[in-house]
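Render this sequence as a predicted structure.
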Amino acid sequence: MKMRTTTSLISAASAITLALGLAACGSSGPADPAADSDSPTMWALTGSSENIFRSSVEDWNKANADDKINQEFFANDAYKTKVRTAVGAGEGPTFIYGWGGGVLKSYVDAGHVGDLDQFLADNPEVKERYIPSVLENGVIDGKTYALPNNNMQPVVLYYNKQVFEDMGVEPPETWDDLMALVPEFNDAGIAPFALAGQSKWPNLMWLSYLVDRIGGPEVFQAILDGEEDAWSDPAVIEALAKIQELVDAGGFINGFSSIAADAGADSALLYTDKAAMMLHGGWVYQNLKNDAPEFVESGEVGFVPFPEVEGGAGDPANVVGNPANMWSVSSTASEQQKESALNYLKDGLFSEEYTQAMIDSGAVPAVNGIEDQLAASEDKDFVEFVYGLAQDAPSFQLSWDQALSPAQGDAMLANLDQIFIGEITPEEFAENMNATLGK
C-alpha cells in the first residue's frame, strides 16, 4: 500500500505538535502598541480559519487607526470553557465567537450580547450579504444577535481514496454498506474510522446523523421543544444501538477515547493511511490543506454524504453541522468598543479579499453570489460539493451541543461518551437526558 512521503509525515508531526501547544493556551500575534483598553477584543479559534481571521484584523488595524482590534486565539475545547466563564462574569471579549443556537440564547437571556437589528436596518447591504438560512442561526426571538463570520460547515464523510483503491472497495451509500466495510478494513490492518473521542463532540456527529436518517429532523426538534420523554424516541434508541454495534464491530481506531481533535491526530490517521474514513466537519478540508497538502493536491482525499439508513424516515439529503460560526457583540463592551466592532462587521468582515481568502483556503463562505469564484477554485470539487449540500438540504441541523442549552449540551456529550465506551445502555442514556429537558 502506498504510504505518504517522509516530508508529509514530518509536516503532519509538526502540525500536531503545534496544535498541542496551542491547545494549552491562547495564542496571538505580537502585541500592537497602538491597541489599548479602548480597543475591541476578539477571541477566535485556532485551526482552519485562523490565518484568515488574523490577516483580516491585521489589515483592518493598518487601515483603521481609530478602530484597532486586539485579537487572541484559543484551541476549540479550551475556548468553549473559557468564553462561557468570561461572558458569565461580564468579562468576555467584545467580539464573541459562537455557533448560534442554545448557547447564543443563553447569552441573550442573560443580557450578555446586544441585538444587531438597528445596525442591519442602517446597513441593509450587510444583511443582504448573507445566505438567509445561515443568517437565521443568529436570530433569537425575532431579533438578530450574531452574524456569520466564516464558512458553511456540513459534516461529511471523508475517505482515503488510495486505501479504498488498494482494497478494491467503494465508499458506503447505506448503513449496511458501511457496516460491511468494517471487517474488510480490520482484516487489512487498517482502522475503518478515525475518531477523536477524547474531545467528545466528534462523537456527536454520529448520533445526530443517525437520528436524522432514522427519524427525520422532527425528532431533535421535539427535544429542543422540551417535549416530555423526547430523548426516548425510538429513533434515538435505535441510533445509539447502531453506534454501539459499530464500536463493538471494531469500527473505530483502537484507543479512540484518548485521541483529541484539537491536536489534529484524527485527521493525521486518515492521511497517513492508518484509517480509511472519518466523519467530520467541512472545516477539516482546510486543515488537511495546511497539514497534508500532498494528500489534498494528489486528489487522495475523498468526500461523500453520510449514508442512508434503509427504511429510515429522514431525507438522505439532510445535513447536520454548523451553518457557520458567528460574531456577537458583547453588551458589556464600552460604547467606543461597540462602535469599532460594528465598523469592522460592516466594512472588514467578508470584504472582497476576506471572501476570496476563504475560498482559496478550501472553504465555502456563507454569503451570496460566489458561484463563479467557487467554480474557479483549485478546490472546485470540494467547495462545490459543500455548497451543493448546504443549498440543496431540506434540513441543515445545527450541531446539537450548540443548539441545546449549555447545561443540556454538556450532559449530552458526557452521556454520549459513556455510550461509545459501553458504560451505559441506550435506554439509560435516554433516561439521563430526559431529566435535563427544560434546563
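Summary. The CA atoms of residues 38 and 337 lie 6 Å apart. The two ends are 51 Å apart (CA to CA).
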